Amino acid sequence: MNAYQYRRVPALVLAKKFIDEGSLGRILNVRCTYLQSWSADPSSPLSWRFQKKVAGAGTLGDIASHVIDIAQYLAGDIDEVVSMMQTYITERPVQEGGTDLLGTVKMDSNAKKEAVDVDDEDSFLVRFKSGAVGSIEATRNAWGRNNFITLELHGTLGSVCFNYERLNELQVCWANDPDDRRGFKTIYTGPAHFYGDATWNIPGMNIGYGELKAIEMFDFVSAIVNGEQPSTRFSVGYGVEKVCAAVAKSAGSRQWEKVQE
């Protein structure tokens, strides 16, 4: 099991239900973002997240991986990508002890500095095996965005839109609504929806990040009790890593790259 917990947000599980039952028709395109601001300040200290020898990657492995998982959870496997990866802040002050404080501490301007050798921002186009297309953007340098995860998915029969900052809501639009009523409507998730038995049983009480971790453990323990695989089994994580590898390769080659089978 791995910790791609955002796919367990009840609103996204509901979106998956709509897709699987055919309510949205054939999926045409998917757009995802994951924007944070904690490393936008160049005085934020160096940590393992900025060092390739420790982290393996920057924004790509840290946060883009989560929205890659969301995209594949909803629309199926990604087949190929073309990408850009940028590093805007090439050195950062060193903090004592190496503690990862996620930008909460600012260092003196005279502090020793070391190189940053990972990506700050990634933007890439994707083509799914189903024929759907999409885009993914991730950055840790977006002032005003703290944990801004968004998804918009369009099908031939409707669309869904999700914003993690309003994680208890799913926006839905149905193509067969009358012209004068067609538009996005809000579904408020609660005990009637997925994982409702693992959280609050009162509509409108809402959940947050802590409850998502409780749902993650609920999924894990339920899989053990029922002798099943959890929704984020290791093969899911491996699939995300293969996409990340293709994104990194494309940034170097400056051309479309296939995701390894």
Automatic annotation (TrEMBL):
GO terms for molecular function: oxidoreductase activity. It comes from the Bacteria. Keywords: Oxidoreductase. InterPro entries: Gfo/Idh/MocA_oxidrdct_glycsds (IPR050463), GFO_IDH_MocA-like_dom (IPR055170). The keyword Oxidoreductase applies. It holds the Pfam family GFO_IDH_MocA_C3. Residues 15-160 form the GFO/IDH/MocA-like oxidoreductase domain. Transmembrane segments: none annotated. This is GFO/IDH/MocA-like oxidoreductase domain-containing protein. It comes from Robinsoniella peoriensis.
